Amino acid sequence: MAERRFNALTGEWVIVSSGRLHRPWQGETAAPPALEPQWRADCHLCPRSRRTSGAVNPDYAGVYAFDNDFPALPTSSSPGSSEPLLLREPVTGKCRVVCYSPRHDMTLATLDSRAIAGVIESWTNETSVLAVDHAWVQVFENKGRMMGCSSDHPHGQIWATAMVPTVAQREDERQQRYAAVHGAPLLLDYVERELTLGERIVVANGSWAAIVPFWAAWPFEVMLLPRARVDSFESMNVASRDDLRDLLMHTLAAYDRLFGVSFPYSMGWHGRGRTQGRHWQLHAHFYPPLLRSPSIRKFMVGFEMLAEAQRDLTPEEAAARLRAVVS
Prior knowledge:
The protein is an alpha+beta fold. The protein has helices at 113-130, 166-182, 186-197, 238-259, 303-306, 315-323, and strands spanning 2-6, 13-17, 64-67, 93-99, 136-143, 155-161, 201-204, 208-211, 222-226, 265-270, 283-287, 290-293, 296-297, 309-311.
């Protein structure tokens, strides 16, 4: 089978070519990471460790957040330019680091329910404060060295920007256009359609659903979507927070069981920023690179970089394989 699928959220297309999954593989492989100790003296994110900046981490017991010592977004920036072919503008913001746990050997997937609830609470508090002075707040995590993570300690980041970034702007335009035509949030209609079909659902509960999107580009890509109107972490009620905690636990545990390895990924949350309207729905993207085993990953190169995204494993098959290992 080969076909193109349209991404209603971004306006992009992806080619699905399931026959390519059976081609022989002689490319790069990567060994699973070694087991980590509970604490490492040379880890800049462990409790009581000294960071490169000279600051010493407190002996924290739960979630610990601090300003990034090497922020990508400065508080002041160079002047812009209006020259049409060399257009530039200042960029400012704030970068935060969020350590999920004091234990170096844990991941978001292996934390207990109380600890994950603490991470969700931290995301909520951090975004609430940063949103006051910034147009966009991006919660994200790069997990694993395969995804370029510079520290094995369980942590994520939050970047707040004075402008709305490209991907968020594209999603906003598509959601706004859909709501104007259909009178409902795009992602709210989408999650209900997927729940009706069932074939791309990984796991769902009363408030949330984990779905391999119809338009997924990465092999085991997953979106987390609320089943009611929820535009930000702050707008969740108690039941929705509890259900999100449970959904995270089941989804991330399934990732780890799939190939028997701590699953690498890039993950990010898109909540309504200061300039978005009621058409916006809070949602998370998980982009894991593993394709066929713990050592074979999907590379976005060649045609994908120069023409259009292409995937070898159908979203339906990926969802079925994840669903089979959900506890």
